[in-house]
């Protein structure tokens, strides 16, 4: 007995029963989805790589149009007036620092009545040295004067008596001459004793260490009880008049641009205070190693200016009229800085230049150009003197 069974495909699918012919179509669908996913992933990677690259890169030369001569971007900068401001750092110092040490024979320090940071006047005692021995020596010198004076008085009295007797014939002229010489020698010994006494007094006066001039006491390197002498070195340091200065180390090119009398603004490190200074001296010597010189900028006293500290300074070097080029146009080698200019025959020519002020807007050319030249703006390292090019002005190239 035959029974015919009918199966509803939709019901079978709902109950996990797959009809004949469905398996192949499901496998193809999954493959298609996998291929699409791979393609999307590859496209995402390519897009990310392009974003990381940051766009198209700049090529050193413009596209060649005639197939033989490269097109190169050039500029004609002209000349402009630029306010010269030089920013450097330097060290604060006393404009006139007076080192004070032992002048006399020295000895044991009895007292030091001053402290660093105080103002002192000329001749003020900075340290007192024991003089007990020297006082006795001075008294001895004073006594020697009295002894010599007594001998001189006796010699003079003998001469006076002999002079009265010579007329009577009791004393010869030779005796008078001898007594006169004795008197003169005694008087000379008096002067010697007086000079020795004065020398001793002068030595005693030098036992006290005094300030040679008025100013601010910067250093005190001695304490009571210390034994000092000629080899003790600097015991005190004084800033004469309290005047300060900044020692700015500046490159030789920029130093030549700063006139004596130029003003600047000084900001000590660690503070937000600014002070006005004036360049009063430029170093006549350039350091062979650093190729720098020193500009000395004077300032009045202020408690925020501490010798030995660092400070930044902005110096007004005056206005200059000169071309200014982008940094990409400046090249350098062992012969110095140079640029490539394009002559009337469109050939590259080397031109040596001296650089001036450097700023975010470019580099001022101190000498070597007048601004009317056609100058290779960039990629000069790919060119060589005498090479023919097709110049393209930067305005038209952009």
UniProtKB/TrEMBL annotation:
Occurrences of domain YknX-like C-terminal permuted SH3-like (ranges): 324-389
- CzcB-like barrel-sandwich hybrid domain mapped to chain residues: 106-234
Q: Which SUPFAM superfamilies match?
A: HlyD-like secretion proteins
Comp. bias regions, Polar residues: 1-11
Q: InterPro entries in the record, alphabetically?
A: BSH_CzcB-like, RND_pump_MFP, YknX-like_C
Which protein family is named in the record?
Belongs to the membrane fusion protein (MFP) (TC 8.A.1) family.
PANTHER family listed in its UniProt record: HLYD FAMILY OF SECRETION PROTEINS (PTHR30469:SF15), MULTIDRUG RESISTANCE PROTEIN MDTA (PTHR30469)
What name has this protein been given in UniProt?
A: Efflux RND transporter periplasmic adaptor subunit
The organism of origin for this protein: Alteraurantiacibacter aestuarii
> What taxonomic ancestry is recorded?
Bacteria, Pseudomonadati, Pseudomonadota, Alphaproteobacteria, Sphingomonadales
